[in-house]
């Protein structure tokens, strides 16, 4: 069975340096006053901490850079001004910024209004950039994009505008555009681990896993202990089926944080990729003991135990999965009961069906109710309660004529009890169903062979082979053809 499985002080210093260099030509206020005011202004303008949403639910930390103080500081652009990649402002525009300080702290919307009135085609790109940052702070990302682009149009080499635009485009799920802006940031000298990490993320979303891994590895060079980029690499490795490397990487992460259930689960997925299902089961059991195994994990664990033939452990996992399912979904436990019954674990399968009825309070959709009745009938047949089982199965096919499984169970029952006419009828009905045609024809042929009707069995087997060729069926067909010839001769 397949398993489907301390930054504040540094920030202030940078901001002071930025404001000093940016406005060194302005003499309207003493420089000490400017140095005191501008850290607050830059913090208000540049701070971006929205919740991006998770691109991959199982890799929640991949996008946690939004909460990283280092990343936030860099988004705030608290570096010194580089004249070749930063626009300048004149004295009048500098005076406007002085007025904006108080407004940004008390009424950001008024600050936006002031900037809109002040911006002209000839004004500094710094004004458009500041307005874009204010729109980001107000989570108006579409308007922010417009003004970052206007800033870049006025000053094409505006490094921070390219960087911030790339970040906001990621927020808007426009990853291809974002990647171009972030690459341009690198071209302008903004080489930084976060930029490489974001480029890696864009490639990951675009399913360019090799490029994504390369970018994440560059990011790791700048921040070797940064978890976000390591998880990005791991996700790329999983997508490229580099399961061995993935096992090793998550092994290292588990050593550092053994209580992180996600690491154990990711490593389990990698083990499954390597076809080492028992090692995956060990990981699932660790998560189970942590009390963090959800229904999906427990069902996967049950599947592994079924494959290994340890049906008692499989039953326990399936039972716990049904109890752990917060949504009380009915399909997974019905599937589990079907599996247990199919491998001959009738009592355990029936016990799981009883649990399902209790959890659902016997309130089912019609299809689910009929499936449960069918499974209970299979248990009854196995226990020799044939009369009760057949009555149930006939009620099922009356209500759902397309229930191929029940049709075949009825055909088998009547065939074993030498009621040839009824057996033929149910076989023929099952053969009309696409999902059951091949199985029904092969089973029907076996029934005919049992009754020495070899010539009738041959076309059924040939038809089944034409639709789904199998070596075992072909060998059986060859034998039946020989028997038919002998019988004819």
Explain what the structure shows.
The chain has 26 helices and no strands. By secondary structure, it is mostly helical. Among the domains are: about 130 residues, Tetratricopeptide repeat domain (Serine Threonine Protein Phosphatase 5, Tetratricopeptide repeat), CATH 1.25.40; about 70 residues. The chain is elongated.
CATH topology of the domain at 63-190: Serine Threonine Protein Phosphatase 5, Tetratricopeptide repeat
Specify the helix fraction band: over 70%
Look at the helices and sheets and give the structural class. Answer: mainly alpha
Q: Main beta sheet: strand number and arrangement? A: none
Shape: elongated
Q: What would CATH call the architecture of the domain at 63-190? A: Alpha Horseshoe
Uncertain regions spanning at least 5 consecutive residues: 1-67, 71-81
Strand content: under 5%
Radius of gyration: 34 Å
* The CATH homology group name of the domain at 63-190: Tetratricopeptide repeat domain
**Order of SSEs:** HHHHHHHHHHHHHHHHHHHHHHHHHH
Query: Mean of residue pLDDT?
Result: 84
Per DSSP, the total helix count is 26
CATH C-level category of the domain at 63-190: Mainly Alpha
Number of strands: 0
- How widely separated are the two ends? 45 Å
């Amino acid at each position: 069975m397949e398993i489907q499985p301390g930054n504040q002080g540094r920030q202030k210093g940078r901001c002071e340096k930025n404001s000093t260099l940016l406005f060194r030509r302005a003499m309207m206020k003493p420089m000490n006053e400017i140095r005191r005011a501008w850290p607050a202004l830059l913090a208000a303008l540049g701070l971006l901490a929205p919740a991006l949403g998770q691109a991959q639910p199982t890799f929640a930390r991949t996008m946690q850079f939004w909460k990283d103080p280092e990343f936030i500081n860099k988004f705030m652009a608290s570096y010194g001004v580089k004249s070749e990649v930063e626009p300048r402002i004149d004295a009048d525009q500098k005076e406007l910024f002085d007025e904006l300080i108080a407004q940004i702290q008390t009424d950001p919307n008024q600050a936006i209004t002031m900037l809109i009135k002040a911006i002209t085609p000839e004004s500094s790109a710094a004004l458009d950039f500041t307005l874009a940052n204010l729109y980001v702070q107000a989570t108006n990302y579409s308007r922010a994009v417009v003004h970052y682009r206007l800033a870049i149009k006025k000053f094409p080499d505006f490094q921070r505008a390219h960087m911030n635009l790339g970040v906001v485009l990621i927020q808007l799920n426009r990853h291809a555009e974002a990647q171009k802006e972030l690459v341009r940031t690198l071209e302008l000298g903004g080489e930084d681990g976060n930029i490489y990490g974001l480029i890696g993320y864009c490639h990951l979303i675009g399913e360019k896993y090799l490029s994504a891994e390369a970018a994440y590895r560059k990011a790791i060079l700048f921040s070797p202990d940064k978890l976000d980029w390591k998880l990005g690499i791991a996700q790329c490795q999983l997508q490229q089926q580099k399961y061995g490397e993935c096992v090793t990487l998550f092994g290292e992460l588990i050593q550092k944080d053994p209580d992180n259930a996600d690491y154990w689960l990711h490593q389990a997925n990698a083990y499954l990729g390597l076809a080492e299902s028992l090692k995956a089961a060990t990981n699932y059991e660790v998560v189970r003991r942590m009390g963090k195994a959800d229904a999906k994990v427990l069902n996967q664990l049950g599947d592994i135990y079924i494959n290994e033939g340890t049906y008692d452990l499989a039953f326990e996992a399936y039972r716990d999965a049904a109890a752990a399912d917060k949504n009380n979904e009915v399909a997974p436990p019905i599937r589990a009961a079907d599996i247990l019954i199919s491998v001959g674990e009738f009592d355990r399968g029936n016990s799981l069906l009883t649990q399902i009825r209790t959890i659902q309070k016997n309130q089912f959709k019609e299809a689910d109710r009929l499936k449960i009745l069918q499974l209970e009938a299979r248990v009854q047949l196995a226990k020799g309660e044939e009369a009760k089982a057949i009555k149930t199965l006939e009620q099922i096919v009356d209500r759902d004529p397309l229930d191929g499984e029940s049709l075949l169970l009825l055909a088998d029952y009547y065939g074993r009890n030498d009621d040839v006419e009824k057996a033929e009828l149910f076989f023929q009905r099952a053969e009309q169903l696409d999902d059951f045609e091949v199985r029904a024809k092969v089973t029907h042929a076996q029934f005919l062979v049992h009754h020495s009707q070899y010539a009738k069995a041959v076309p059924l087997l040939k038809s089944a082979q034409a639709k789904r060729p199998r070596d075992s069926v072909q060998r059986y067909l060859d034998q039946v053809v020989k028997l038919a010839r002998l019988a004819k001769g």
